[in-house]
Amino acid sequence: MSELLLPGETLTTVNDGIRLLQNPEGLTYGTDAFLLASFLRRAPQSIGLEIGCGTGIISLLIAKRQKLRHIHAVEVQAYYAALAKRNTTLNGLDHRIEVSEADARSIRGIYDVVFMNPPYMKTDSGKRNRDDGKFAARHEVFGDIRELIAASARCLKSGGSYYAVYRPDRMMDLLAAMREHRIEPKRLCTVHADRFHKPSLLLVEGRRDGNSGCDYLRPLFLAEPDGSPTEEATRIYDSGDWIE
Predict the structure, then answer these.
(1) Burial (CB count within 10 angstroms: exposed 0-12, middle 13-18, buried 19+), residue 242
(2) pLDDT tens, residue by residue, 170-222
(3) Can you tell me the distance from the alpha carbon of 161 to that of 178, in angstroms, rounded to the nearest whole number?
(4) What are phi and psi of 158, to 5 degrees?
(5) What share of the chain is helix, strand, coil (3-state, %, to 5)?
(6) Which residues, 6 or more positions from 99, have their beta carbon under 8 angstroms from its beta carbon?
(7) Is there a contact between 54 and 80 (Cβ–Cβ < 8 Å)?
(8) Do 37 and 63 touch, CB atoms closer than 8 A?
């Protein structure tokens, strides 16, 4: 197995038995990726586009669960595009996921579903990561939220579904950009560490050219006061689907 690893990389088994190559100094698997994959509705005959796939984990989870028929995963950073390809091959999912090294702002095509875990921070905010790839994944180096949603809208068919996980403090930037580009917010949920903390994540589903009206779901609390997972979180972890 060591021949699969490049210097600095590790191999970890995560949800659904997925074997994930990653670099601990760069992008690593987190709760946001798992929750976005779970939030995405099943559409087993649909073709999806992931914008900014990183290690490929979100597309891997979606493909493993057969939520979409096929996924085109796009990543602008050469190392992570190659890593996502290796992870796809490692998990025997080349027939379900195609990985491309490309800037999402230049992507063309029409898809049934577009999903992304975009950079949360502006380039002049937060600490500067030592790892350039990690910095670019967390900061809007390769396009701000308006540009990434414009790219999403351009690639999304009328009536198609858009999904994103984002930071609650930038919710208005996200929702305003969605409406500006004719992606109407339809479902929204905040995620909290527990009942005593403010939300740390925001999940949203939109529809291209959809009518106005958004279903604000009950908040998801990940842990009980004693630190154990809540019943809702456990059901999501076990099923890979959202519990509403």
Answers:
(1) buried
(2) 999 999 999 999 999 999 999 999 999 999 999 999 999 999 999 999 999 99
(3) 12
(4) -60, 130
(5) 30, 30, 35
(6) 53, 56, 73, 74, 75, 81, 84, 85, 88
(7) yes
(8) no
